[in-house]
Amino acid sequence: MKRLDASEQAVADIFWAPDGKWITYTLGDEIRLARIETGEIRIIGKGTTPRLTADNRVIFERDGEICAASAGNTVTLISKSTVVKRSAKGFPMPSPDGEILLFSIFNVYDKMSQSLNAYPYRHFVGQAGLNGQRARITSQQWYGGDFTWFADSSRFLHFEFDSTAGPQVHIVDREGKAEEGRLAGLYPSISPDSRQIAVKPRNGGSVVIYGIKGAWADKDITIAVVKIPLDKTVRPSAVPPVWLDNRTLLAVEGDAVYRVDTKKDKAELYKKIPTPTDRRKASLVPSPDREHLAMEVAVEGGFELRVLPVA
Predict the structure, then answer these.
(1) Distance between CA atoms of 303 and 311, rounded to whole angstroms?
(2) Which helix (DSSP H) or strand (DSSP E) does residue 226 occupy?
(3) Bigger pLDDT: 144 vs 190
(4) Contact 14, 299 (CB under 8 A)
(5) Cα separation of 200 and 225, whole Å?
(6) Can you tell me the distance from the alpha carbon of 36 to that of 44, in angstroms, rounded to the nearest whole number?
(7) Can you give the pTM of this predicted structure?
(8) Residue 112, SS3?
(9) What does the domain layout of the chain look like in residue ranges?
(10) Which of 108, 111, 178, 280 is the most buried (most CB within 10 A)?
(11) Of 48, 52, 54, 47, which Cα lies nearest the Cα of 16?
(12) DSSP classification of residue 55
């Protein structure tokens, strides 16, 4: 186990580089970049939700704009005037292949909402090319929650914290068009082979696994539920289920970590790693090759960022 950094406040927004050599994260409102092998730490500057691209740029949000830092230089990729003028942008998420950048566009005037006598402003999903292609607004509305790309960059997930139909996970192709499959749940996580999606139900206490044999379409989706052996009701952790392989995942519930065998529909207490911090952001994140885990751990006087091999 390696201790990379520590803070009296929080270690948040943990994100791995696609090659698994670097981790970016925030300490308070400061973005940092750490090299796994050497422990070297670089301070990028002020901002939130940092992400690393395939060409090792740090993409992040600052003052309602999306910026990119590389080789000591910082440029604005998406400004408040881009796509929708005077609208703040946030939650950037680059695709694994380094071609597409997703982001949220806040408080967009929407005629459809006004015609329904509803609140006339909505948040939408935006999309841009990471190599300079023009940014645009998609038809997808955004109600909170991170974006999650499939490994081949062919599609992504985004989820709503709540709606009239309950928490929903949407499957969207790389052009921004919603696909047929729609899943219920929160904090989605995609298996290494992209054939399964694990989510948490609103009330916690279990992991729901959606699977496919064909396409991600409603008629082809199977559903399995694995109960977590809790002795009381707890608020579901914001840590998405962590796939270790196509059969096994880790689930953080309450103040413990559970190992879930999706083939046996069985969850057992997992004591080989410490329990990550419980906050409204993911605090346990697997490396791209799923051989290591980066996590925020509460210690006396603050919090630590640790990296440890998968046991």
Answers:
(1) 22
(2) strand 221-227
(3) 190
(4) no
(5) 10
(6) 17
(7) 0.92
(8) helix
(9) 1-46+282-311, 47-145
(10) 108
(11) 52
(12) T
CB 67 within 8 A of CB 47: yes
Beta partners for residue 186, in sequence order = 200
Q: Please report where in the chains the tokens 């080789």 appear, as a residue.
A: 71
Please state, in angstroms and rounded to a whole number, the distance separating the CA atoms of residues 182 and 187: 14
Which amino acid is it at 141? Q
CA–CA gap between residue 101 and residue 103 (Å, rounded): 7
CB burial of 205-236 (b: ≥16 within 10 Å; e: otherwise) equals: bbbbbbeeeeebeeeebeeeebebeeeeebeb
Q: What CA–CA distance (Å, rounded) separates 32 from 34?
A: 7
The confidence score (pLDDT) of residue 117 equals: 56
CB 90 within 8 A of CB 67: no
Work out the end-to-end distance of the chain between its first and last CA atoms, rounded to an integer number of angstroms: 11
**CA 259 – CA 237 distance, rounded (Å):** 15
More confident of the two residues 66 and 212: 66
Letter for the amino acid at 134?
R
- Which of 228, 286, 235, 222 is CA-nearest to residue 260? 228
pLDDT value at residue 164: 67
CB of 35 closer than 8 Å to CB of 64? no
pLDDT at 254 over 90: no
Q: Report how many helices (DSSP H) and strands (DSSP E) the chain contains, helices first.
A: 1, 28
| Backbone φ and ψ of 301, nearest 5° | 90, 0
- Residue 175, CA atoms < 13 Å, CB-side half-sphere: 2
β pairing state of 147-149 and 89-94 = unpaired
